[in-house]
Amino acid sequence: MTQNIKIDPYGFREYDARWLYEKDINIAGIENLGKGLGTQIISHTKKNNPTVVVGHDYRSYSEEIKTALKKGLISTGCNIKDIGLSLSPMVYFAQFNLDADAVAMVTASHNENGWTGVKMGIKKGLTHAPEEMKELKEITLNEKFTKGNGNEKQIKDFDKIYKKDLINKNKIKKKIKAVVACGNGTAGVFAPDILRGIGCEVIELDCNLDWNFPKYNPNPEDLEMLHEIAKIVKENNADIGFGFDGDGDRVGVIDNKGNEIFSDKIGLLIARNLSNKHKNSKFIVDVKSTGLYSKDKILIKNNCKTIYWKTGHSHIKRKVNTEKALAGFEKSGHFFFNQPLGFGYDDGINSAIQVCHLLDNQNKK
After folding, report:
1. What pLDDT, in 10s, does the model give residues 60-93?
2. Which of 76, 139, 166, 313 is 20 to 30 A from residue 263's alpha carbon, by CA?
3. d(Cα 238, Cα 226) in Å, to the nearest integer?
4. Of the residues 156, 191, 219, which one is the last residue of a structural domain?
5. Residue 4 covered by a domain
6. Do residues 338 and 325 make contact, with C-beta atoms less than 8 angstroms apart?
């Protein structure tokens, strides 16, 4: 007896897919999602056996969901490179590093337990935009699947390659004392190591992995998390506090006095710092962000241009890509760094590193 397939159509959102596991989607539904995604990847890449990098976050059920998703992908002819426990940016990085055709990351980011989802992309450094999500939804719900024979390969220790890439490019001279808070989410096994690696003195806060999220959800927009970071910053007389979300693509920043700084202001500070070295650059910011970018004296002096664009990480990411901008900043804390600073996708740890460079370059708190 085959299990009935359950997929709530509302789970297909503008940029990714999210469901309450078993209530709105079941394991057979996940497998069909894999078949839908595999079919879509094959039609876009015009390859019978495209390679797909797959990873999962630290939730009790993420691995079984990944297994079902892979089964669906393989049945269409996709060849899987499974990099194991990951952050979303590590999966995006792996697409470049392993030269893969597409990515699928099983994560519900900062959502409560019970939620699951997939972040996916085909073009390197970009995730699905609304039109690709609509196409995926149609393929999946109408079960118009390609059939093929794919295979699967486990890539061991890929986390070390990802960490090394960020550390080697970003050494700092000043000993910055940083509180690193991960809300017991997956970033706990990445952020402290990387920030220590570039030269920070790290004070860890809730960096041990615990999929029950005993204190609060790992969400840097959550006041509970920000207040806790502020308290630890003040107690330890730290220079800065960083809070990472569940899948490591966003960061929240607390200054040395324990004040939360809105992400659009952090973006402007980073843009100013970068503009000194990278004159004539372009920056993309979302329309919810501060108007200060457009009339900032330092950016104007360095001949840098700011373009305001539609809110939504997939929109900003695409605009950074098409405009060949140096960086993009979204008020929600998604920051995108393009070459030579990154590969154009959002990585919360790289964002924290850019804040460290800012403190390293200027003799200010």
Report:
1. 999 999 999 999 999 999 999 999 999 999 999 9
2. 166
3. 15
4. 156
5. no
6. yes
The DSSP code for 187 is G
Give the largest CA-CA distance in the chain.
Answer: 69
Segment holding 63, helix H or strand E: helix 62-76
Last residue of a domain, one of 99, 127, 156: 156
Catalytic residues: 109
Q: How confident is the model at residue 364 (pLDDT cuts 50, 70, 90)?
A: confident
> Which residues, other chains included, contact 45 with Cβ-Cβ below 8 Å and sequence gap of 6+?
101, 102, 122
Task: Give the β-pairing of 335-337 and 79-85.
Answer: unpaired
Residue type at 211 in one-letter notation: W
User: What is the Cα–Cα distance from 108 to 320, expressed in whole angstroms?
Assistant: 25
Q: What local confidence, expressed as pLDDT, does residue 36 receive?
A: 98
The model's pTM is: 0.96
CA distances from 52 to 154, 295, 357 (A): 12, 43, 33
Q: Which domain holds residue 113?
A: 9-156
Q: Over the stretch 324-335, which tens digit does the pLDDT of each residue have?
A: 999 999 998 999
Q: Buried b vs exposed e over 323-333: b needs ≥16 C-beta within 10 Å? A: bebbbbbbbbb
Q: Evaluate whether 59 touches 218 at the Cβ level (below 8 Å).
A: no
